[in-house]
Amino acid sequence: MKFHILTLGCKVNIYESEAIKESLLKNNFEYESEQELADIIIINTCSVTNMADNKSKKYVRHAKRLGKILVVCGCSSENNQTIYENMGIDILIGNREKSKISELITNYLEKKKNYMQFYNEKDLPFEDMEVTTFESHTRAFVKIEDGCNNYCSYCVIPYVRKNIRCKEYNKTVAEIMKLVEIGHKEIVLTGILTGSYNSDGHDLADLIEEISLIPNLERIRISSIEITEINNKLLDVIKKNEKVVNHFHIPLQAGSDEILKRMNRKYNIEYFKKKIEFLRNLKKDVSITTDVIVGHPYETEALFLETIKTCQELGFSKIHVFPYSKRDGTPSSRMPMQVEESEKKYRSRILNEYGKELEKKFFLSFINRVLEVLIEEVNDSSSAGFTSNYIKVKIKEKLEKNKIYKVTIKNYENGYLIGERNKEEIKI
After folding, report:
1. Relative to the CA of 127, which of 13, 219, 343, 363 has its CA 20 to 30 Å away?
2. Are residues 312 and 256 in the same domain?
3. What is the pLDDT of residues 26-57, one digit of tens each?
4. Around 267, how many Cα atoms within 13 Å sit in the side-chain half-sphere?
């Protein structure tokens, strides 16, 4: 039978969907890229915002109308159990038992009996999954951590992903070794709170040091990390280990101390700025990207202007802007002084414009310089890939996928750089 997987949301979901796909292929199911042609549709949902929830439910309704065997899992189903229970889904789970989806489908085909299971305990063990190849990505993601204990006032993720737990250290290293052996040159360490990794007495810094010894692994990237998780030990590894890329995605969320406090974030602006300064002194041309929420309760126009000023001072190379999404059950949803939707949209547009200016400024600083580019996309007349500091570069030449080339940057276009390969220099 043929199956199709639709993945919404974060890199953790991408990893989990890849693991689900591998498990099904091993059990003689066949992957189908077209949803309409599949016998089984699996939807790995997201609940990070109301928009993500609505999109997840929309895709489930569409899939239901196709009359296929329908499997739904992920954060949205975990967060909206009652709604999904009434949608007539064949196999319905939350974030637990994703590793068993192949088995659940086989049982369903044999018994023709619907399956639904949720786990509401806060403390759950890490659910082991393994990916041996990423066909759809040159970079290979490895999920090393799950869950969150931060309980930011606006966020549902700690409720739907539960408490922090981590992949066993030796299993993590072994999985990464296999991915590198089959040709992946870049590993992206991912989790809900990736920087909180701790297993068998080994933290994230230890893991990076260990996997950096793997031959043919060229780049180690952290998908996202909280500023409070960047301790002195990790900073030392970042400084000394050349395989650690010079790009860090560090959520700011607000550029105002007052709003950070309302959000229950664990730092103030001065602390954030000092850590960013440390990073910039450690890595040449480091790219710092971030997330910012606008329109959180109590955010006045003056406090929003503080956020703009903070972002300009920090000089982010990219800002992902999110209008505040009121999530039922969170402390922020019960706060007074909720910001009007029209004002949130306006502030989002303004900050996005500033973000694009900062991104362009950062990109232009690399004109006429030579950068190493890992090729990820290839067609008959051009190629594209990413630098260590996560700049997309296009080359008007057919190159080899999954190889790193030295490229001279010639021009800037909307959101990416144009370069020419240095023909005498190639890094395998």
Report:
1. 219
2. yes
3. 999 999 999 999 999 999 999 999 999 999 99
4. 19
